[in-house]
Amino acid sequence: MAMKSRDGFTLIELLVVIAIIALLTAILIPALSIAKQQAGSVVCLMNEKQLVLAWLMYAEDNDYVMCGPMTGITGSPRYDWVGPPRDSSGAAKTSSFTAEEEIRGIESGTLFPYYKKAKLVNCPTDKRAARAPTYPGCGGTGGYRTYSLPYHLNAPVAQLTGRYGPAASNDRLVRITELKSASSTYIVVEENDNRDYNMDAWAFDPYKFILIDTIAVFHNNVTMFGYADGHSAKKTWADPRTQRWSNEIRDGLRYPDMTGLSDPENVDIRWLATHYPRKH
């Protein structure tokens, strides 16, 4: 007698298939997340390299005088590598601005003609602009621009000495020819200011080992730096305090101020001081 053919799966077979799918999902999702993170890191490094090259080209076109690190101070020579957020009329905004208005300000900056794409100032793993700001009283979105430049890179004298004291003017770099070791001196930093956007230059005191502004850790305890010779590289933080504070600031669990890490025994702070751009 002929056997009857089955029209479908048994319950046990379906459960086995579901279990296999769940197992594969559990294996693949972390792998895909890691791959996405690695891809973002590669793009971030490329962004910083492009920005450093733009910074160098500007200097070469202007008697080797570097563009300053500020976000709203123009002057002569120009100090504003990017401009402040601007509305549709072009007026600068200091609060209640959108990512689009921040991009408009970026495009008004002195360096923009040298790199020409606003997306180059945003690390793809920096998602601050896609969420509400942690401290909304300070402005608009959570921040679109990821990268900042340190104060000693030709900031106006008044701003530099006002933050670091009169002696800091002796360390102020004006021309790229004044850089001692371009290959080990960073000029582009990933900053994570959750208050709103990365306003003005990145503040770090290399004299007192005080980390004033934040460093970003969008890459699992790693921060990307762009160096004055045109290359970019990652820095993995070693001190547990640096890792913990940076992650808490990234996640909105700590106010974006890292002065509490001001400890010369912190190897990460010493590294920042050693490679910080200054004349002496």
Commentary on this structure:
This protein is α+β, with helices and mostly antiparallel strands. The chain is built from six helices and six strands; from the N terminus they run H-H-H-E-H-E-E-E-E-E-H-H. It has a four-stranded antiparallel sheet. The longest helix is centred in the first third of the chain and has 51 residues. The N and C termini lie far apart (97 Å). The mean pLDDT is 85.
Provide the fold topology.
Layout: H1 11-61, H2 99-107, H3 112-115, E1 147-148, H4 157-164, E2 186-190, E3 204-205, E4 210-211, E5 222-227, E6 232-236, H5 240-250, H6 267-274
How would you concisely characterize the structure shown here?
This protein is an alpha+beta fold.
- Write the H/E string, N to C: HHHEHEEEEEHH
Which shape, going by the Cα principal axes?
A: globular
Helix content: 25-40%
Q: What would you call the quaternary organization? A: single chain
Q: Structural class per helix/strand content?
A: alpha+beta
Q: Which terms would index this structure?
A:
32% helix; 280 residues; 4-stranded antiparallel β-sheet; 6 strands; alpha+beta; two-stranded antiparallel sheet
